[in-house]
Specification:
Elements: H1 3-14, H2 22-28, E1 49-50, H3 63-76, H4 91-104, E2 108-112, H5 115-128, E3 134-138, H6 143-152, E4 155-159, H7 164-173, E5 180-185, H8 197-206, E6 210-214, H9 229-232, E7 241-245, E8 255-259, H10 261-270, H11 272-275, H12 282-297, H13 300-318, E9 331-334, H14 338-352, E10 354-355, E11 358-359, E12 370-373, H15 381-398
Parallel strand pairs: 1-10, 3-4, 3-5, 5-6, 6-7
Antiparallel strand pairs: 2-8, 7-8, 9-12, 11-12
The structure holds 4'-deoxy-4'-aminopyridoxal-5'-phosphate.
4'-deoxy-4'-aminopyridoxal-5'-phosphate binds near residues 119, 214 and 247.
Enzyme class: transferase
Organism: Streptomyces griseoaurantiacus M045
Family: Belongs to the class-II pyridoxal-phosphate-dependent aminotransferase family.
Length: about 400
């Protein structure tokens, strides 16, 4: 008997131990998120269409991105050879940082191996160094933000999600002399709703707080040149630091911050997840750079994503299939029951060849289970119609309650 192994066997059982055949999904999913291409060696002629990919714009398959990766592999090989400070900084890391700083209109940018480590590493430093720093954090902030703030050791106040009045109360109650940092997202990862950024910027200015905005689900997709929601609102200069990922709209991997040079240099010098790990492979940096450059000049992908998301919002609305927010391309279809959510996902896969992973606790609170649907720029309007029809049939069959836009 091994008590540790026994513990985890029991734990998994309690979690419902969903084991999905990811190998099969991976084999049969087309090369594109919409799975329009048919894999030659697929065991069945039914293709799986993926509706939960974060490669929202299809940049992971874009010819210019693939070509950049291939050229960089030929020129520099497969790996970076070291950490950023010891042998692992390549030409492409530097170009990518310059491009990202320009995209956000900031003095400097710093690239990490992932968005998770960018949030964790940057917030540990930015919230943790100035004595007495008080952090104000949105209640729905991502796990990587929560972990970074924990690692900083800073005292924090949590404001209700997107609640400007609550944040005002908390700021007004705080000692005016203490350094302050407000941390929020622009498009929220699980609810898909958008922060009222202008009102948060007003508060930050009134109470002399620095701001850190996670635009992970917005960069590439919104704003001029894909610079995000703050840029769309024309207020990017009112925020201190932007954080983004290269793994979603930009279709590759890696994360970054962009902000004032002094802050970026401090993070570069002090952040352990930046310093003590191998840097991104040059080909990843090169392909991310190609994706950022492409999306700075092309509107086509953004337009297609907006059209697909808009149609999905309308079709779900007409069928009274409840979803959390119609403010972005993240369409969190509300099920509100663990077993029903798994069942709906299984029927989508088995009968319709549509893959949407059910989102259960701890990613969302128990009783708030969702199908987090992400239409992509590579789906067609016809795909969106078929998807909405499939959901409608499942709602009917399983008797899942209907409703409208719920709010987060
Ligand atoms: N921030 C948010 C809001 C996210 O949703 C995620 C990932 N889902 C991250 C940060 C981490 O990004 P990455 O996947 O690049 O590590």
């Amino acid at each position: 008997m091994n008590r540790l192994l026994d513990h985890f066997a029991g734990e998994l059982e309690a979690l419902g131990g969903q084991r999905r055949d990811f190998l099969e999904i991976g084999r049969r999913a087309g090369r594109f998120p919409s799975a329009l291409a048919r894999l030659q060696d697929a065991p069945s002629d039914v293709e799986i269409s993926v509706w939960c990919s974060n490669d929202y714009l299809g940049m992971g398959q874009h010819p210019s991105v693939l070509e950049a990766a291939k050229n960089a592999v030929d020129a520099f090989g497969a790996g970076s050879g070291g950490s950023r400070n010891i042998g692992g900084t390549n030409f492409y890391h530097v170009l990518l940082e310059q491009e990202l700083a320009e995209l956000h209109g900031k003095e400097a940018a710093l690239v990490f191996s992932s968005g998770y480590t960018a949030n964790d590493g940057a917030l540990t430093v930015l919230a943790g160094r100035a004595p007495g720093t008080l952090v104000f954090s949105d209640a729905l902030n991502h796990a990587s933000i929560i972990d970074g703030l924990r690692h900083s050791g800073a005292e924090k106040r949590i404001f209700r999600h997107n609640d400007v009045a609550h944040l005002r109360e908390l700021l007004a109650a705080a000692d005016p002399e203490r350094p302050k940092l407000i941390v929020l997202e622009s498009v929220y990862s699980m609810s898909g709703d958008v922060a009222p950024l202008a009102e948060f910027a007003d508060l930050a200015e009134e109470f002399h707080a620095a701001t850190f905005v996670d635009e992970v689900h917005a960069v590439g997709m919104y704003g001029p040149q894909g610079a995000g929601i703050a840029a769309r609102e024309g207020i990017a200069d009112r925020f201190t630091v932007f954080m983004g990922t290269l793994a979603k709209g930009f279709g590759t991997a890696g994360g970054y911050i962009a902000g004032p040079a002094d802050l970026v240099d401090a993070v570069r010098a002090l952040s352990r997840p930046f310093i003590f790990t191998t840097s991104l492979p040059p080909a990843t940096a090169a392909s991310a750079l190609a994706a950022v450059q492409h999306l700075r000049s092309s509107e086509a992908e953004r337009d297609r994503l907006a059209a697909n998301a808009g149609l999905l919002h309308r079709l779900l609305g007409e069928r009274r299939i409840p979803f959390v927010s119609d403010e972005s391309h993240i369409v969190s279809v509300f099920v509100g029951d663990d077993a029903q959510c798994r069942r709906a996902s299984a029927i989508l896969l088995e009968r319709h060849g549509i893959y949407v992973q059910p989102i259960n606790a701890p990613s969302v609170r128990a009783g708030e289970e969702i199908l987090r649907v992400a239409p992509s720029a590579t789906h067609t309007l016809g795909d969106v119609e078929k998807f909405a029809e499939a959901l409608d049939g499942i709602w009917q069959e399983l008797g899942i309650p209907r409703g409208g836009v719920r709010g987060a």
